[in-house]
Amino acid sequence: MGPRASEDEVVTPSKGVKGLTLRAVLPNAITAAALCSGLTGIRFAIDGNFEKAVLAIILAGMLDGIDGRIARLLKAQSRFGAELDSLADSLSFGTAPAIVLFLWSLHDLPRFGWFAALAFAICCTLRLARFNAQIDVEHQPHKSVGFLTGVPAPVGAGLAFLPMFLWLASGESIFREPAVVAVWVAAIAILMISNLATLSWGLIRPRRSIRLGAIAFAGLVFAALLTEPWWTLAGVCVLYLALMPYSILRYARIKSQRAAALVPAANGAASRVE
């Protein structure tokens, strides 16, 4: 996430260029827009409009997904952008979902409901702090093979909203039961700060033989989002959770293969020493 930099680094301005370029401002502007969208979700929840509240936070997730890519495309990565992105994520995917879920359901369970909301917001912040602390760390076992550590903050927010997706889709009151929602939110909070290996977008590489089928499936998912958004979002959450055991097993297999490959190398080095 951005080049290594320090506070005392001196940046030499380009001659004849005054002010900031659009290339430098655009990624951070998108991050600020994501932050505003996430916080606006709180305003909608206060007004009792929970559909708009969820959609605002989903929009924040979409903007968060493109700001880093645009920064890399424009070669405008910076340590400032990385820090701003993490702070925005903490508010949009930690604080905002916690308050929305509390106003929607958890307020009926005053003590434990608020603790569950706090746990979610705190765990999201801790996850992002861990990510920032590891930016300059060379050895990251999960990242080195394309995996993530724990559930990402935007995904965690989406998973936390699963009961609300089901409630909006079906209208069943069981999905709004505060005890059920509290346990679910606490479980997602633990997944965010866990050390489990989870799949990243970089690992999803369909074979060329199913390329057309993958494109058609993506189009159908988009159509489903337009016609049945809440059922579709719930299905995406369930699919992600179903893939978690696969990602854990796949990482364990890769880890064992790496360990097996290191044994002959270690034996060879020992024999040369002898």
TrEMBL record:
<protein>
    <submittedName>
        <fullName>Phosphatidylcholine/phosphatidylserine synthase</fullName>
    </submittedName>
</protein>
<dbReference type="InterPro" id="IPR048254">
    <property type="entry name" value="CDP_ALCOHOL_P_TRANSF_CS"/>
</dbReference>
<feature type="transmembrane region" description="Helical">
    <location>
        <begin position="181"/>
        <end position="203"/>
    </location>
</feature>
<keyword id="KW-0472">Membrane</keyword>
<feature type="domain" description="CDP-alcohol phosphatidyltransferase C-terminal">
    <location>
        <begin position="211"/>
        <end position="245"/>
    </location>
</feature>
<comment type="similarity">
    <text>Belongs to the CDP-alcohol phosphatidyltransferase class-I family.</text>
</comment>
<dbReference type="InterPro" id="IPR043130">
    <property type="entry name" value="CDP-OH_PTrfase_TM_dom"/>
</dbReference>
<dbReference type="InterPro" id="IPR050324">
    <property type="entry name" value="CDP-alcohol_PTase-I"/>
</dbReference>
<keyword id="KW-0443">Lipid metabolism</keyword>
<feature type="transmembrane region" description="Helical">
    <location>
        <begin position="210"/>
        <end position="226"/>
    </location>
</feature>
<dbReference type="InterPro" id="IPR000462">
    <property type="entry name" value="CDP-OH_P_trans"/>
</dbReference>
<keyword id="KW-0812">Transmembrane</keyword>
<dbReference type="InterPro" id="IPR012616">
    <property type="entry name" value="CDP-OH_P_trans_C"/>
</dbReference>
<feature type="transmembrane region" description="Helical">
    <location>
        <begin position="112"/>
        <end position="133"/>
    </location>
</feature>
<feature type="transmembrane region" description="Helical">
    <location>
        <begin position="25"/>
        <end position="46"/>
    </location>
</feature>
<keyword id="KW-0808">Transferase</keyword>
<keyword id="KW-0444">Lipid biosynthesis</keyword>
<keyword id="KW-0594">Phospholipid biosynthesis</keyword>
<keyword id="KW-1208">Phospholipid metabolism</keyword>
<dbReference type="Pfam" id="PF08009">
    <property type="entry name" value="CDP-OH_P_tran_2"/>
</dbReference>
<dbReference type="Pfam" id="PF01066">
    <property type="entry name" value="CDP-OH_P_transf"/>
</dbReference>
<keyword id="KW-1133">Transmembrane helix</keyword>
<feature type="transmembrane region" description="Helical">
    <location>
        <begin position="145"/>
        <end position="169"/>
    </location>
</feature>
<feature type="transmembrane region" description="Helical">
    <location>
        <begin position="232"/>
        <end position="249"/>
    </location>
</feature>
